[in-house]
Design goal:
The chain is α/β, with parallel strands linked by helices and 241 residues long. The protein contains six helices and ten strands. The chain has helices at 11-14, 67-81, 104-117, 132-143, 189-201, 223-230; strands spanning 24-27, 40-44, 54-60, 84-88, 120-130, 150-154, 163-164, 167-168, 175-181, 205-211.
């Protein structure tokens, strides 16, 4: 079931507006290429009628990934906790970490597309990502002039372009979550430890969580903690015993 245990006793409520074509999974791009680079996938919970503003989570895949696959990393929580979920696909095989930034405008345009068509709470827009998606997302978030109100990086690193004269630029007052495995073979945990300290020193409000024995992978079981850090109102009651 694509529903968390706490809401499985009322699945009908999760599908209250399933006949509305504006709900469910949608995508941009050509019909014959669901994995087209530079496009996006969007999930609008079938329980929403648009009367109340809801949070938006924007999830960036890792290197060589795509939005269609990464959407499912967060879909169960989006359906259960009733937030909109946007999963863009990078223009190239991974996000623009070197050279010209071909992804920024497409990313921001996709968010604007969703905000123009759905009742999104502009004070609750989370950017999150895995690996290259986390690194690119954090870099974009710190660079400023975006609609994102918080950033949750998983198995990513701090990009050198966010550092000037040994200090992080753009971090003051920003909310950042870092989740990292102690056995990460691609980005050793020491990089995450250094990043969280540097962000704190630069004035960011940082949540840091290390996971023992986790390698370079996405820990789906951490989604609830990330969401409740981002927005405590997204917490679910304990499931009935």
């Amino acid at each position: 079931l694509y529903a968390e245990p706490a809401v499985r006793n009322d699945l009908a409520a999760l599908d209250a507006h399933s006949s509305d074509p504006r709900t469910g999974i949608q995508r941009s791009g050509p019909d014959d290429d669901p994995d087209a680079r530079g496009e996006f996938h969007l999930y609008v919970p079938e329980s929403l009628d648009g009367s109340q503003p809801r949070p938006l989570v924007v999830a960036l895949h890792g290197g060589m990934g795509n939005g269609r696959d990464f959407l499912w990393t967060w879909l169960r929580e989006a359906r259960s906790r009733r937030f909109l979920l946007l999963a863009p696909t990078s223009v190239g095989p991974t996000w623009a970490l070197m050279g010209p930034d071909a992804d920024r405008q497409r990313l921001l345009s996709s968010v604007e597309f969703v905000r123009e068509r759905f009742n999104v709470d502009g004070d609750r827009i989370l950017l999150t990502g895995l690996s290259d998606g986390a690194t690119y997302g954090l870099s974009t978030f710190l660079a400023g002039d975006t609609p994102f109100t918080a950033m949750a990086a998983v198995a990513g690193v701090l990009h050198p372009k966010n550092v000037q004269d040994g200090a992080i630029v753009g971090a003051e007052g920003k909310c950042v979550s870092i989740t990292h495995g102690t056995k990460d073979w691609m980005f050793p945990v020491q990089l995450a430890q250094a990043a969280q300290q540097a962000l704190r020193d630069a004035g960011a409000d940082v949540r840091y969580h290390e996971i023992a024995d986790l390698a370079h992978a996405y820990p789906r079981e951490e989604n609830p903690a990330i969401l409740e850090w981002f927005d405590p109102t997204l917490a679910l009651p304990a499931p009935d015993s």
